């Protein structure tokens, strides 16, 4: 019965890819001193009674390296968008010009850069934990199959497969973190 056991490593890999994609999204929201439209992705505006991403209430542009502009489509939402940006923790002070909100990106000081590298480290640790949880799920499936009669050799083979997959993705998280920290610390 258990001789035909095959762990769905494609599913584990797809779920680990999801953890990496989530990490990349979190990294994109970290400010590195250069203007980027992606830094506003996590900011939600209370529009029409529900939280709405900024890019759904206005056009986000990056006209120059240290400036992001948001052209809000509905005049009634300008104040709410401004408030959402102020409360987002991005450390940016919005400036109003009619329905256009300008976000000058200040130069990061050394202390703020250090804080951002720590935040990036926390994001990476969350991704590592997610990957380890997926490893545990895979190992639990193998243990269940062992109880159903999976041979010890097959058990060792599948455990090694799961461990190698986990190691590969943890290494990928570490590489992403190293790249992001170097980008943040670059003056």
TrEMBL record:
GO terms for biological process: cytoplasmic translational termination. The keyword Protein biosynthesis applies. Its main location: cytoplasm. It is found in: Cytoplasm. It comes from the Bacteria. Residues 23-185 form the Ribosome recycling factor domain. This is Ribosome-recycling factor. The gene is frr.
């Amino acid at each position: 019965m258990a001789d035909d056991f095959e762990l769905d490593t494609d599913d584990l890999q797809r779920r680990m890819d999801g953890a990496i994609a989530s990490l990349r999204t979190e990294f994109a929201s970290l400010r590195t001193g250069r203007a980027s439209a992606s830094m506003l992705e996590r900011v939600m505006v209370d529009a029409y009674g529900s939280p709405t991403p900024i890019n759904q209430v206005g056009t986000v542009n990056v006209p120059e390296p240290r400036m992001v502009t948001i052209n809000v489509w509905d005049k009634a939402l300008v104040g709410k968008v401004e408030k959402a940006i102020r409360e987002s923790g991005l450390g940016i002070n919005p400036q109003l010009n009619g329905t256009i909100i300008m976000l000058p990106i200040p130069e990061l000081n050394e202390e703020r850069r250090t804080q951002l590298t720590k935040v990036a480290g926390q994001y990476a640790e969350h991704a590592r934990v997610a990957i380890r949880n997926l490893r545990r799920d895979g190992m639990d499936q193998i243990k269940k199959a062992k109880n159903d009669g999976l041979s010890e050799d097959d058990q060792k083979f599948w455990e090694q497969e799961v461990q190698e997959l986990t190691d590969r993705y943890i290494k990928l998280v570490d590489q992403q973190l190293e790249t992001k920290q170097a980008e943040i610390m670059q003056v």
